[in-house]
Structure formats: C-alpha cells, structure tokens
Task: structure prediction
Amino acid sequence: MVSFNEFSTVPTLLRNVVKNIHQPEDTFLIHKKGANWEEISFKETLAKADAVASFFLEKGIVKGDRLGLMMENSPEYVYYDQGIQQIGVINVSIYPTLSEQEVAYIINDSGIKAILVGNPFLFRKVLKVADNCQELKYIIPAFPDFGKIAIPEGLNIEVIDYNNILNRPVSAEETAEIDKRRTEVLPQDVSSLIYTSGTTGTPKGVMLTHYNFVKNVEVCLQQIPVIDETETFLSFLPLSHVFERTATYHVCCAQGCKIAFAQSLELLAKNMGEVRPTVMSCVPRLLERIHDKAIKSGTSAGGMKAKIFTWALEVGNSCRVAKEAGKNPGLILGAKKGIAEKLVFSKIKEKTGGRLKFMISGGAALPKNVGEFFGDLGIKILEGFGLTETSPVMSVTEYHRQVYGTVGRVIPGIEIGIQNVDTKQIINIQTHDTFNESFECEEGEIIVRGHCVMKGYFNKPAETAEAIDKDKWFHTGDIGRFYKGNLQITDRLKNMIVNAYGKNVYPTPVENIYLKSPKIEQLFLIGDKREYITAIIIPNKETLQETFNLKEEFFQQEGDFIEEKEIYDWIEKDIKKISNELAKFERIKHFKIKRNPFSIDEGEITPTMKVKRRIVEKKYAPAIAEMYAKDSAEVE
Result:
C-alpha cells in the first residue's frame, strides 16, 4: 500500500515500496541486454544508488549541489538519480539532443559539478565545451571503451568510469552516513532543475521541490486509482522531461510498478510486443501514427477486408457512445462488438502487447478524432495537462469518465482559473471538489495556484515574479476553458494569430483538423497581421513515397520545398475538402510543402517537438513572402 506523509521525499518513495509493498528481491527495472530482457531488483537498485551516493560524499559533494545527467532512459539513470537525491543533491537532467552551446549554457547556469554521459556522442559533446565550464569537475561516461576517445590536452577535469562507481563497496559507516543525509532532505528542498526547452528566449531552470513531485504523484494516483503494484510501464519518453519523470518514473517509485526501458523510438513497436506493458506514457504524435497505420492497414487492400474494418469501427463507435451516455449497448450491439473484437480490434491490440490497461497522453493536444478512434477500439487514452513549472500535472482524465478533446478534471488540492486575456479579470476558478460534468465557461488564459507550482526559476527572480503574480497564480501562457467540467486547451497565448481584420486564430485546433488528412505529417500555420492564412506543410513521407514511387534521393535534393505540381495538387485536394470544416478566416489559402521535417539540430523545434515560431518564420521568410505575393501578382 502506498504511504505518503508530510515527510515524504523522492528518495523515500522507493524505500517505502520495499518496506510495505514488495520484497527487496522483486523486480523493479527491466532493460534489454544483448538479445534478452534483464530484470533488476529493488535491492540491487538501492545498492547501486548507495554506491553513487558514497562516491559523491567522498568527493565532497554536499546538499544543494547540482549534478548533471545527459543520457537516454536506462537503469543507470535511476541509480544516479536515486543516489544523489538521497544526499540532498539536485538532479539537472539535460536533453541529449541539445546543441553544444545549449549544453554549456545549462552546465554553467546551474553550476553542475559532475555530469553523467550515456554514449560516445554525448561524451564528445561535453568534452568540446568542458574548458568553458568553470564549475565542472567530473565527467562520468556510462559506456564501455570511452578511453579510446581523445581527451583535449590540458583539460583540468577528471574522467571517471561509471562502472567503477557502481561497483565500489559501501562500508557500514558510509551506509549510516547516507541514511543520515536522507533524513536531512526536506520536502521543501529542490529536487530537480529542469530547463525549459522554450520556443522563445533563453532556457530557464525550473526549481521543482520534493514536495512538488511527491504531491503530484499522490494526487494523480488518487485521480487514477486503478494503477497498482502489478503494472508494467514501458518507458520511452525522455526522463529529462518532467512528464516522463513524474508520470512513469516517480509513479512507479511510489507504487512499486515495474519500469521497462524501450531501446529506442525506432524499436518501440517491437519492444511493446516483447515487454507487453500494461501502462504507457506517450505523446499524441505516437498515437496519431498508430491511428494512421491502423487505418491504412485496414482499408488499403479494399474489398471485404476494408468493409469488415469499417464496419468494426462503426460498431465500436456505437458501443462507446452508448456507454459514455450511461446506456447499456444491448444484446445485438454487444454481440456485434464481440465479433468486431475478434476480427479487428484484438489484432490491433496485440501489436501493443495485448495487455494495455491504458495510455496517458501528454505534452500536446491529442486530436479529438484520434482519441475517439482508440476509444472505439476499447483502448483507453487518458489525457493530462501541465507544464514543467507545474510538476507537471494540473489536470488528468478520470479512468471512468472520458470527454474527448479535453485534458480531464482538475487534480485535488489546486485551483485552476481562466483569466480574460485583455481585461485580466478572472472569469472562473475550478477545483477538484467543484467538478460539475455539465459546467462550461468562456476561454481565457489558464492560471494555476497550489502545491504543483514550482519554487521559481533558478537565479532569475525577475522572471519568477513575472510568471507568478502577487496572489500566487502561475500564468501558464496557455489558452483554454472548462467544457463538461473538464479543462480544454485551445492553444498557446504566444501562438495566437491575429489577422489583418482583428480575427483571432488559434493554430493548434486548426492544425489538428487539417491533420486528419493521412497525407499530412505536420503543419505550421502563418497569418499574424496578414489578410489570410498560409501554411508550411510536411507531408507523410511514407504515403508520399508510395503514391509517387519516390526514392530516398528525392528527400536529399537541394531546396527546402517540394515544387512538383502533381504533389501540390495531391495535397491541395485534401486541404480544400477539410477546409469546409473551418470558418473562412481559418482556412489555408496557399501553402508550401517542406521536403523534410522541422529539425532540432537546425533549431526549428524544441526537444519536446514544439515548433519555434519566430525562428521558423524568420528562416523561411522568402518562401512565406512568396505565398503572400501570389495575390498581388494576380491583381497586377
């Protein structure tokens, strides 16, 4: 049984599990080693964590120091995090995809004294900037043969083999000292600095306390009480991001669930079949891809197979709608559902491992039609909403109550307000206890107050004061409203497009409508202070290749945009058809087709896959100008 109290901190969660839920020898972590999946017990995890703690104590690291990690999800991440957390050290996890300049900025801004690196590429990245990182004393490679990589001459930083740290013996005296340090870690102490990926400006270090994390886990488990100690989570989203850190790692630490680490995004489908998870945290893009592949697989052959697939989805839809209305589907519909399950749904579910209880989607808005599709299959998708600054969860779908297109009910213990963007008047405030499934209100900026809100931005009091007002409301910068008692996200405040006629266009819902087209992978709307909307479209590469028999060389050609008229016409057909679902001022009038996706390396998107609007508009300004010049040319 999970036990939370006023003294709970991140390092006490796992020990509570061993004390009250599992035996020390029970499995906690699972990872692929060679051709086999290896299981690691709670006992071994805690022993490795103690080895990490004793090493850093020997090196003079003290409570409040910052230590870094830059690596993929793995047991090694957990050993390091658990080890440093129990002696009061602050975890600074850095996205592996960041540039050298961004890595150097975070190391210096946070004052990292040691950094764990997970592979040769990341090791070289740190070595290149290490000379300019004054506080950095230790680089710890967590991979074999790092000695083959040349270290710059004169580098006054010690390189230490992570394996030597993990395998060091820990004396009884050291164990006693670690236990003592753990009791000195307080809930109000900072547990982690997580740097915002930010679509604009310099990254800011968000200070999240042990209380932020532990309380967030506690209330989320209250909201989703079906998670128990028998679950197996498959982890593939980066632990450097707050969503995976809380929704998978910390939940499992608190509840005693197993964590299996996926090998990579490319091998995720294979790993799902091998691990057979019961719960997964995911992002909408993954669900959209599963949706697109299932639709394509079910309908592309045509004939009877396509008819059965379409019929099954219609049956699933009728069952879902009936259940959500509180009605019994009835004998005939129930029998049809059984046939649909056997012929269609079970085959799709088997590709996920066949045991999924539910998936938690976060990080961006899930298109309503995608959520409904999974609901029709009988695969439950719970949506959540939050930011790095809110630990992160502010709201999450209840397991028994689904409202597609929303991000769920307010979690216990906090307040969420909707504030008028222009007048700053608070339109409405909702809590977990005021929930009313028929309540609705107009939209505005989402603000939040309560236990989930960060301590502040590290060494940035002015930015902290700008984000958290005098009444303790944190301003999220997101636009939303309450719909059927649940929070609904409209868009980001900074994303809002105001056209030349003063009409407000929120890009995300418009983009999601166009993304119904299987031909479109990604879409970026343009139109601020302009007479109409244009877009940069990234096509679905696989569909494009199959339709036009294109080789890989086509995507390696010079030129950012595809100019072939037949491809333009092919996409335009869907654009025109889908535009009928939108108001005239929201419709795309002209568009450009980008040859390749927006890139992290090019600085066009953040590690959380959000497009950096200012950078993209500046970089592709000539192409954008060309779209708006078309009508001028026609007039002339």
Notes: The two ends are 75 Å apart (CA to CA).
